[in-house]
Amino acid sequence: MLSDSERKAIEAELPLYERRRSLCIEALKIVQEHRGWVSDEAVADIAEFLGMGADEVDSVATFYNRIHRHETGRHVIYLCDSVSCWIMGCDRARERLRETLGIDFGETTPDGRFTLLPIACLGACDRAPALMVGDELYGPVDPAKAEEPLGKHP
Amino acid sequence: MNRRPLTALIHPGEPPPDLKAYEAAGGYAAVRAALRDLQPADVIDRVKQAGLRGRGGAGFQTAMKWSFVPQGDDAPRRKYLVCNADEMEPGTFKDRYLMEGNPHQLIEGMILAAYAIGAEVAYIFLRDEYPLCAKRLRAAVAEARAAGHLGKDIHGSGFHLDIHLHISAGRYICGEETALLNALEGKRAVPRAKPPFPPVAGLWGKPTIVNNVETLCFVPHILRHGADWFRGLGKGSDGGTKLYGASGRVRRPGIWELPMGTTMREIIEDRAGGMLDGYRLRGVIPGGASTDFLVPEEHMDLPMDFESVQKAGSRLGTGTMILLDDKTCTVGMLRNLQLFFSRESCGWCTPCRDGIPWIEKTLAAIEAGDGREEDIDLLHTHTRLLGPGRTFCAFAPGAMAPLQSALRYFEDDFRRHITEQRCPYTNGR
Ligand SMILES: Cc1cc2nc3c(=O)[nH]c(=O)nc-3n(C[C@H](O)[C@H](O)[C@H](O)COP(=O)(O)O)c2cc1C
Ligand code: SF4
Ligand code: FES
Fold first, then answer.
1. How far, in Å, are B155, B407, B411 from residue B415 at the CA level?
2. Residue B142 belongs to what H/E stretch?
3. Roughly how many angstroms between the first and final C-alpha of chain B, as a whole number?
4. B284 vs B406: CA distance, rounded Å
5. Residue A9 pLDDT > 90
6. Could you tell me if the CB of A131 is within 6 A of ligand 3?
7. ipTM of the shown complex
């Protein structure tokens, strides 16, 4: 079941759209904000609330890079691996993060602090290589010290 | 008069102008004047006189698109305006600059566009990775509403408009306008079959105009200063200015508002400061990942406007260039681009869903020194199989653009990998 605060947050968006099911993405994001990620149970809860099939909700959930259908760490590091950042050394930044955190793309540190994921161009190509931790943008990051910004995210 | 209308009030690193500052600089004057003195058709006409072309990549005539919206008593009453702020094309960072730097300018442009087409509800479709844009747009919409620029009966004109911010969840195909409409409706965001085109049947089946951020930002300036002024800003046949950008190994990567038709040389040498010491320029992707390479030997003095770039075999696209230097491996760069496209393909049609991963793997093999002579033919074949008209949307042809042009300009690079069975650029990165 959706919690009261989840339901309220989703319903607040209802007047913005012509149909209830248009709230699907909002709902997924709100639930992810509350629960950290989107489990099978969460998909079923949203489907029931919006009057959609669970498969339909899942086909939307799995479509998006920023909806997580797996449990993630407290902070998600999104390392841009698109072309300008690649030219400027994002592969070396990835390697450095692997050395210092012990995780590669798709993995979470054993203490549950960080998950590392690749992301498409962050629109910060003039600051390449760039990465985001949660909603915080960093760039240009020195690939040899790519872990530096992480200190701000305990 | 101002030669940099879009960016005059933008000072990166500082907060954007609030309502008061924006109005003090002449902001919202165009809205007041248009709602008082102009019919919607007059607004379309002024934009037509100016010759404004869409800045989302295709360069479509904005006024013509607006005129496709059915009007009159027989037309659906509900119509929608959508601002495409999904900016995810690798190498592109211009719309972020406009939204973070001057959100009121976009809102004013949207009010005028909505008035022109008769839309009473508008959406900004913003990508999820731009939280600062979201924050600033929300604040600006609230200010505009409080000042009576949005809401019911705006300035006593009888025209109503609400602007809603929709924040996506990260997927490149959502930038394609029909996929975007499906995304807004809460569906899996695959593109729609066309026709019908969105101006006739779009969001929830109603007439819908989708315009890029930069396109909409021009509208207030055109209404304030006129079509002749706008045309005079450009250097060639296309009027206005353009946000040009450069990234890669240049001294000063960044974004600049310059006359439409500024040459590649001026952008790279004067604005971006040329290449970093020790690097030579070899190729330029002129307007985001899905445009064809140009090369300095032939195109340094090319005016970067829609027509000239097209004649040179590429597209102006988003106008933000990605620079290939002599220490970066072309095959590696292409592999990186195709990895992006293979991840972001929506999977709807087979050539794109299956073809692009195959291309990516082939390029990875060549890069690793495992390529074979036949691979080059295979790549050529794929650029044809995934070319225009072969797939459900323009995504796949876009993915092929940098590949087909790289095979033309940098064929030697591909061949060297294969004959030497290794990557010749080991020290590049
Ligand atoms: C795969 C794909 C991605 C696109 N992404 C964007 C985008 O992020 N922003 C944008 O304005 N247009 C994008 N477009 C172009 C839009 O479909 C549409 O043409 C544009 O928003 C129209 O705006 P304009 O007429 O103001 O240029 C994309 C097109 C394709 C095929
Ligand atoms: S070309 Fe690619 S992105 Fe476009 S509909 Fe087909 S699979 Fe989807
Ligand atoms: S390519 Fe990394 S921010 Fe654009």
1. 66, 10, 6
2. helix B131-146
3. 45
4. 10
5. yes
6. no
7. 0.97
Q: How much distance in Å is there from the Cα of A18 to the middle of ligand 1?
A: 23
Mean pLDDT of chain B, nearest integer: 96
Distance CA B289, CA B316 (A): 11
CB of B259 closer than 6 angstroms to any ligand 1 atom: no
Name every residue in A having a CB less than 8 A away from some CB of B. Answer: 16-19, 21-25, 28-29, 50, 59-60, 63-67, 78, 81-84, 86-89, 91-92, 119-128, 132, 135, 137
Task: Give the C-alpha separation, B324 to A119, whole Å.
Answer: 21
Three-state SS at B325? strand
Q: Could you tell me the two tokens for A14?
A: 């209802």
pLDDT surpasses 80 at B428: no
Closest CA to B356 of B340, B380, B371: B340
Mark yes or no for CB contact A125/B131 under 8 Å. Answer: no
- For residues B112-127, give the mean pLDDT: 98
Q: Tell me how close the Cα of B20 comes to any Cα of chain A, in angstroms.
A: 27
Tell me the C-alpha distance between B63 and B65, whole Å. 5
Q: B263 is written with which tokens?
A: 């040459």
Residue A101 has pLDDT above 90, yes or no: yes
Could you report the per-residue pLDDT of B63-87, keeping only the tens digit for each? 999 999 999 999 999 999 999 999 9
* Alpha helix positions (H), B157-199: 177-184
For residue B10, the 8-state DSSP code is -
Question: What backbone torsions phi and psi does residue A58 show, to the nearest 5 degrees?
Answer: -65, -35
pLDDT digits (tens, 9 = 90+) for B125-141: 999 999 999 999 999 99
Buried b (16+ CB within 10 A) or exposed e, B5-31: bbbbbbeeeeebbebeebbeeebbebb
Q: Copy the structure tokens of residue B228.
A: 């002749």
Confidence of residue B429 (pLDDT cuts 50, 70, 90): very low
Do the beta carbons of residue B324 and residue B285 sit within 8 Å?
yes
Q: Is B353 in the pocket of ligand 2 (CB under 6 A)?
A: yes
Residue B40: what are its φ and ψ, rounded to 5°?
A: -50, -40
Chain B contact set for A132 (CB, 8 A): 129
Q: HSE (CB half, 13 Å, CA atoms) of A8?
A: 4
Instruction: Set out the domains of chain B in order of their start, with CATH numbers.
Output: 19-233 (3.40.50.11540), 241-325 (3.10.20.600), 330-428 (1.20.1440.230)
Q: Which one, of B282, B280, B274, B285, lies nearest residue B319 by Cα?
A: B285
